[in-house]
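Reply to dn_fold:

You asked what the input looked like. This is it:
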Amino acid sequence: MMLKGRESLIRLIGRRRRFLRCRSLITTSVPQIGSKEDKDEVSTESGNGDEVWVDCPVCGKKVRGEEPVINSHLDKCLARGTKRKLSQCTLFQLKFCTRPKVTASSIESDLTRTEFSSSANDHNIYDLASEMRNSDGSNNKDESSSSSVSLTLTTSTCNIFTRNRVNRVENLDGLLEFDDERKLLSGEKSMQIVGLEGFPQHQISDDRIDNITSSPLSLSKNRTPTCVEPLEDDDNSKILLDTFIVGRKFADDTELIIGAMVMLSRDFENVKDSNAIKVLTKDTGHSKELGFIPRELAQYVSPLIDNFQLRFEGHITSIPQHPHAVVPIQIYSSGIASFGEKDSSSLQEFNSFRINAVCAAEFSKTHPPISAKYQQNLLLLLKEVLKINAHLFTEGEKTLLQAFLSLSDDSQRLFARLYARKGPWFRTASISYAEICDYEEAVKGLSEAECVTLFKSIDKLQIGDLKEVLDVLNVGELRDLLCSLNKSHKKIVQNSDHGTRKQDYVARVLGAYGSGLCPNLPSMILGKTGSCIRISASAESVFWRAERLFFLNGEQDLSAFLLVDLGIVKYPAYNCIFTDQIFPDRSDLLSYEEAIEVAQVMDESLDENNNELVSRCVEISASHVSSFVEEDISSHFGSMAAFLSCFSASWVYSKVILLGVSFLEHERRYKDAIDLLKLLLLKFKSDRRRGYWTLRLSIDLEHVGCLDESLEVAEKGLLDSWVRAGSIVALQRRVLRLGKPPRRWKTPSFSNSVNRKIVEVHVQGRPVNCKTGVKNVFYGEDGERCGVEELALEYYAGEGGFWQGVHTESGIWLTIFGLLMWDIIFADVPNVFRTKFQTAPLDLETDSFYEVRRGLVESLLDKIEHGMAEELLIMSWESHVGTACRGVKWDKHSLSELRAAVTCIGGPCLASICRNLAQDYRSWSSGMPDLLLWRFHDDYRGEAKLVEVKGPRDRLSEQQRAWLLFLMDCGFNVEVCKVSHAPV
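and this is what came back:
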């Protein structure tokens, strides 16, 4: 059974991290759910000798000297407004050292002696000290360093170190006005970065990252040479170009010789690049394919070949060491360009292509193409992240990235390969990649840059490392190792049968090592595995952070580049306009990452059925949420809070708590679930999930016998503007059921609306199975097995009224919505597009989507209502077919089906559905009727019907009921088709 919220949490976590910083925190004691005081708030006498206890500078209480505990405690103190006098100590020293007055110079000297990999880095103390040093307005480094600026820090300064940061987000009231519909015309859109004022751009200056050839997915300015407008009297003599042969792995295996003659040939059958040009050997007999010229050059050379009948040939200038590396060549034009009727326009066009080809060739001299595409993708990712989010990395992390960027191609490629694999340990002897020439040098470089950890000796080997290294061995090697242990240590390891699983072998080996009877076990394992390698903890943390910041989710990784490179996925064109940062401060990012780590431990604990650890994760999350003040989110994100609050730690913790509620309900611990639901409703006043929380709270209160309180919760929920769609219907039905005399004497006004009768149609079928809990399967008219939906389609196609239709549920509606609203979905709205790998704006599932684009949406809906839907649909389909967009399923529905659907539905009804989805996509994007049916009349006018199909043991969900009632209000023809077993 999948717990409610588990799938969503898995998507949020994405790729599980190998090294979790918060694991030690989870194993420590935390406050119980619902307690008023934290367990860390104890007197001095309560601390033991092994723990470090410090004084809170706000309330004066003793707290444990762990960074997460300190931060959580400070959040609570500052939220309560409990402040001491100005004589309190400051927070510049995270150990809460007592210093009545702090100077900028003293801070800097202290930080110089501090290890920045600890909490000092996590709170950007160094940057703050630099700001204080220059606070006198002087730009002279010597003057600012010599002058000591004494500052007494109050509690307001201390707030810098809490997770609730100063608001740096501008209001969206200044958004562009979208009155001009011409701005919605489709076309190439480029990246725009607008004024990220106040956010330092600490960019790493390195040729390896600056010289990356531009990619269509890059958010940076295009680094390829732009078109040059030539003079009319430019010389059009022979063209000489120095370039490279790329894509050699797709070519024939041909031995290369310096000076060997080559020639160019157009590749018209290349589906990925219409300008592709092949490089062939220039032989008198059969020419062999060597590869291609770079795409950036081919876009200018191909018109010279196609339009002006130029021929190009040349020779190889040098041979690379690696068989798949790029090959330098020099090519030149032969013959005379054909202009047909000579005129100034054709000559100018020729000169334009010629000059730009020369520029592209010159550009490639300093920016040679990278043969390994995945290496280029990784460098591009780092480039974009460091361009926009460099302020979120410490100096130590930047140093690590600088070291990585200075490594050889072999080292970078080996790291990229290992990072993409599961691991964590790999045998160096078994690593084999064709594009890596020297493995030993690659490993050596990565080790010196501290990007990998090597297992060459038994020094400092922990039991956790030993278990991971044992996973490298196969079953046969583990069996041999156990046999060796039995011989050496008088059979202390028993039952090593051939049928034993690998996990059992590993457990027995670790048991032998843990007993202390096999101290030489690590050396025996090393003898089996040989030298091993893994990604280091520091490198894994930095690259995981960079990947997360680039994609802004856990579902995408570097493989997304591969899907684009292979042409499997095509992302839409839109502008990325930045005016604000998602994470203004590094501490905000660290809090968010810590919350994700707790979510990962929660997910892993559910996999391992570790209920105790699951409870610990829920308690930790509840502790953080209990100190959360919702106003902090709006002050932090401003008007972007609606769609950027999901990048806050409190939002992640709320998802852990929701999963915990489902877990507790499954365990029948309803009172604990009630406490968590009340906490969520108390702390999150403006959240679209309040409807589900309120419904579950009312249900759980009924489980524990509190019927009056359950009814009261349901009634209050109906007054909540954030309770919507199916949750409203569910709460209304609960109020009607629970609110009977003597609890309530007055019948609610919504009684008649929610109790409306929906037309029902009954269909009988021959069942294949009649088992409870198994999907209903019937025999169709052709004798084949089918589901209840297909059986209903057969009925409506025949005696049910000769309807055509599809079983689609929400699919066809979301596809129609995406196609009709395409230009509005991808309109130029600041901050909603942060990466070129998005299929929808970040605010699509929030109220902000409609509010910001209200004029555009209503203008389009007016056109739909007046019968232009089919025309708009055709235009959008032909312009964007195959492009990824949220909800659009190109392969599920043909254009003819979509045209028939929108025509028969009619403008007013279709406009109502689109408006509903635009205003609240999140609440209404699921639960739509199973079948959409239509039939035409003689005058190309038609009618449509929506049918929800239910099997013998099925009933309507509240979301489905909400949709049916809404569609009835819109004037749709709606039915419920109930399929039952035919009598034998």
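The mean pLDDT is 78.
Hope that clears it up.
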